[in-house]
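FORM 7B: Structural annotation worksheet

SECTION A. Query
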Amino acid sequence: MLQGPYGSLDRDRPLIRLPFTSFAVGTVLLPLTGLIACLFISLVYHFEDATYTHCQVANYLPSISAAISRVPERYIWRCCIGLHSAPRYLVAAAYFNFYYGRFAKSLPELLLSVLALICSLSENTGLLLLTYVSSTETYSIHKNGFIVFIASSLLHMLITCRLWQVIRRHYVNPEVNRVLYSLFHFIFDDQKHCDSDSSSVGWQASPTHTHTHTHFCKGSFTPLLNLAIIRGQCST
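SECTION B. Predicted structure
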């Protein structure tokens, strides 16, 4: 056996320890931090360009697409989303393994688990697509990525609500059930029975605001659209 500075004990020792809670919080905060930074820079340096619309109506805030399509905003947003997306693919696979272990003998829930995995992957892919293809470059691809992102987010949230309700109902261990109940409340905004109204209202309001602003040229609808998107994403 070779002796050196990296013996068996040192080699097997982890180089760094990172609590999963801190890892999850950091991953979630990346898009929020990037969005706030992009909106701030757009308001300060690119206000006229970022709030310009074909209708020539007043806007107080730039749309998210406009805020992330200019320099240096686009690079800040792409860095944040790139760092945010890689762990989400891993978490999607980890959640599927967890569901598979619980529902291996239950076909309906197993199919829902597969659908949840597909929605999670498509949601993340849609987010990457609308991030790295800005609206000023190829608008159709950016728009389709946005549609995939919203639809997958809403469907994934509803499926997750259903799966966790089944998990809670079949756990008979009071201690485990208590832990899952606390986690369940933490994930779904401390609501009593996984009420998805807050996030679904946010996502449903997004196309409404977009259609109203685009086709009827209503002023000041971009801030409402931004709030609807942020509310829906934070809820999911």
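SECTION C. Observations
The two ends are 52 Å apart (CA to CA). Confidence is low (pLDDT under 50) at residues 186-205.

SECTION D. Sign-off
Analyst initials: ____
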